[in-house]
Design brief:
The complex is a heterodimer of chains A (406) and B (225). Chain A is α+β, with helices and mostly antiparallel strands and 406 residues long. In chain A, 53% of the residues lie in helices and 21% in strands. Chain B has a single domain, classed as 3-Layer(aba) Sandwich (Rossmann fold). Chain B is built from 7 helices and 10 strands. In chain B, strand 7, helix 6 and strand 8 form a beta-alpha-beta unit. The longest helix of chain B has 18 residues. The chains are: A alpha+beta (406), B alpha/beta (225).
């Protein structure tokens, strides 16, 4: 009976109900979309930081990540045991690193040379997707190089050009050799685009006189946001000479950004729903106020205060549920569009590097359960809260006073 | 045992910084089966008295007893239960619930009492037949005339067979013909079914139909005949 009465009360003033529902639907849908885009930005930043360079975790010799001393190397095959065979590992890449001078004709530039096994590296990073010229390295390539666009510009090289790399080798000699430019990438991260060069692992091992040695193994997992826990589990299985860091330890600013995301999300949700909630509260209050006399009659007929309260709360709950259902559907649809198509803003904006990651000039949504669940739960809560005040007022009225009210 | 008993009842309303004594030291006994009118000019306290008898309001002083139970100190929940089980209301402005049909309005107290659907529909159809409302069951109050709405209000008041039916100025919104019809109908229900009616009215037509007239003046009993 209460349900039937509540349902009919909702539709007694269709225009007002539709307006209130519209406010609920639009606010939920836009909030879901906004959170989706916010998540997309965060994923872009995280991906730019991890999938362009660091990976989700890095295994290296103790102390290497602090000073990148070339003598802190290890043999990958002998040291990592079964750690890299776990199910949650999607890929790993053995790397040897060197810093030196790269030259082409009259131009030279300091650079970071990363020796990789190209097929392995593709399972961890996605630089191959950021190529703007030429091709990525192949495993058969003996001396190819793929370098960042800023570096290529500074050296004035294009694919097919020759480079000379000079550095100090592990045996104290001057290591130098020729490289052939195969491709140029542009990630939007200025640091990488201006200095990073990928070369075959074997080539760099030979230049540095470090045969069979690597400086680190970059790892990609299926749970990037839980990489810290995964790294913690693996730590026990590694020899004492090796250490493992998750991306959060490598990029503490990025970890702070991710950690502050939940707080930011709640602040955005709160601001929007305080504004929406006041609107809903006003509507519900008016709807109840104008029925004061009728509620007095219901009480005179024997309806208990608790039933009056329940009826009004039921009305607001039905409204809230309808609003969140339609809002969630609309929000998911908008987010899906933004996830699949998105909006390219590269014509008007440039990439922004922040906290080790890059915010790309695009609007791109990522659909996450929390981005749908939080606005939905909040809308229901706001509706109930907005209904509670008038419901409580109605339930506490004296029937004789309510009936007298015009 | 009297159906309703008021013992030295006083009701004082605050009005700004002053107080208005609406009913002053009033005592009254109403037996089951009576057809009684609380008469008097505007402001004499008849509606206040009706509200007190109907458990819509509580006295400032004095006692009100209904069916052997003191109600003047009961809480809201107990008063709701009492109104549901013992009292039927007919309001001056009908006060039907606009979102319910005529039949649903009449069934409302039975629904609150959780009477089965078929049983309450049978009861309401029977009442509609007696009240000349056949065929109007599914109409909304806005589609009914004033007289028809007042009949639906009577059906609502009578549906749960309460101990007493209270009517506040029941003819105030009706023309003389509809008023006469309504009073004849209530008189018949009183005589045939033994329903107890207590009215508040200053309409001479209502007073002429009453078996008992309790006349009030400034919150005091002036005449009981």
């Amino acid at each position: 009976m209460l349900y039937q009465l509540a349902l009919r009360n909702i539709w007694r003033n269709r225009r007002r109900t539709l307006l209130t529902l519209s406010a609920m639907i639009i606010s939920s849908a836009l909030l879901i979309l906004a959170l989706g885009i916010f998540s997309g930005m965060l994923h872009d930043m995280l991906a730019s930081a991890t999938e362009q360079y660091y990976g989700h975790m890095v295994i290296s010799a103790n102390g290497y990540q602090d000073d990148r001393d070339m003598f802190r190397h290890f043999s990958a095959e002998k040291s990592t045991g079964t750690v890299l065979e776990q199910d949650e590992i999607l890929g790993y890449s053995q790397r040897l690193r060197s810093f030196g001078l790269l030259s082409h004709q009259q131009n030279s530039s300091p650079s970071e040379i990363l020796g990789v096994l190209p097929l392995q590296e593709r399972t961890v990073t996605s630089l191959q997707n950021s190529l703007i010229d030429g091709n990525y390295l192949t495993d058969e390539d003996p001396n190819g190089a793929v370098l960042g666009s800023g570096l290529a510009r500074r050296l004035n090289v294009v694919p097919g050009d020759q480079l000379v790399f000079v550095t100090q080798a592990a045996d104290g000699s001057i290591g130098n050799d020729l490289l052939l430019v195969r491709g140029v990438f542009s990630t939007g991260d200025i640091g990488h685009d201006n200095a990073l060069v990928l070369v075959p692992l074997a080539w760099l091992q030979q230049v540095l006189v470090l045969p069979g040695q690597v400086h680190e193994i970059a790892v990609r997992t299926d749970q990037p946001l839980n990489a810290a826990e995964v790294a913690q589990q693996y730590r026990a299985h590694l020899p004492e000479t090796l250490e493992i860091f998750d991306w959060g330890a490598m990029l503490p600013e990025m970890r702070e950004v991710v950690a502050s995301y939940d707080v930011s999300r709640m602040i955005i949700v709160s601001i929007l729903y305080i504004a929406t909630g006041l609107g809903i509260l006003n509507t519900f209050f008016m709807a109840v106020m104008e029925r004061t006399r009728e509620l007095g009659v219901l009480m005179a007929l024997g309806m208990r205060p608790g039933q009056i309260r329940a009826m009004i709360l039921l009305e607001t709950t039905i409204m809230g549920s309808l609003g969140l259902l339609c809002g969630a559907v609309a929000g998911i649809a908008l987010s899906l569009y933004m996830a699949l198509v998105g909006v390219d803003l590269s014509g008007t904006l440039t990439p922004i590097t922040y906290a080790g990651g890059t915010i790309l000039p695009r609007l791109h949504a990522v659909i996450e359960p929390g981005n749908i669940l939080i606005p939905s739960v909040c809308l229901l809560f706001v509706s109930l809260l907005a209904g509670f005040l008038p419901a409580n007022r109605a339930a506490r009225m004296q029937p004789v006073v309510a009936i007298r009210e015009e | 045992m009297a159906l309703i008993e008021l013992k030295s009842v006083t009701k004082i309303y605050p009005l700004g910084s002053q107080e208005v004594v609406a009913v002053d030291d009033f005592s009254l006994t109403i037996e089951a089966g009576e057809f009684c009118v609380l008469a008097g000019p505007s402001g004499s306290g008849k509606t206040t008295l009706l509200n007190l008898i109907g458990c819509l309001d509580l006295p400032t002083r004095g006692e009100i007893w209904m069916d052997g139970r003191e109600v003047s100190c009961a809480d809201q929940k107990a008063l709701s239960e009492l109104r549901l089980r013992k009292i039927g209301f007919i309001f001056q402005a009908y006060n039907l619930i606009p979102v319910l049909t005529a039949a649903e309005n009449a069934e409302f107290t039975l629904m609150l009492q959780q009477v089965g659907k078929k049983q309450r529909r049978d009861r309401v159809l029977q009442l509609f037949s007696e009240l000349g409302l056949d065929g109007l069951e599914n109409r909304k109050p806005s589609d009914l005339s004033g007289g028809q709405q007042q009949r639906v209000a009577i059906a609502r008041a009578m549906a749960s067979e309460p101990a007493v039916i209270l009517a506040d100025e029941p003819t105030a919104s009706l023309d003389s013909h509809a008023s006469e019809e309504l009073l004849t109908l209530m008189q018949r229900l009183n005589e045939e079914q033994g329903a107890t009616f207590v009215f508040s009215s200053h309409d001479p037509l209502v007073i002429s139909h009453a078996k008992r007239v309790v006349r009030l003046q400034d919150g005091h009993l002036e005449l009981d005949q």
